[in-house]
Amino acid sequence: MRMRKCLIVFFSIFLLVGCPGYADYEYDLPNDYKLNRNSAHEIFIAPSEGWRIDNEIIPAKVVELAWNSKYVVAKQLGLKYERDNRSYQVPDQSKVYYWILDTETKKRLGPFDFNNFNVESKRLHIDNLKLKAVESYRTDI
Hints:
By secondary structure, the protein is of the alpha+beta class. Helix content is 18%, strand content 42%. The strands form two sheets. It has a five-stranded antiparallel beta sheet.
């Protein structure tokens, strides 16, 4: 009886809390880059071996992206501190940036506004890449 009660409590807590880390994920991008989601707003692109000062990354919060064998393009919302909480950042809808990451040369271009992003995409012949929501690429759900 005691074991049954313990199992009921355990599964109740599990259902209330959810799977630990389930919302966090990563997936592979070309040439040893990854998209990393560490929390609702900490979604960024970095080299697989981890970020260092000499590596180019696309900072949080990445909301849309697309890629081919050489380039990763991304739409990013800047982050700002909440008014009453200086330790937690939330997306700033007024700061929308676009980035182009050359994964072969490890060079990052941007941040761009939408018009300059389109100009640079055409210049690099990658204007056929269509940005999609980050979550749409997940295969583990």
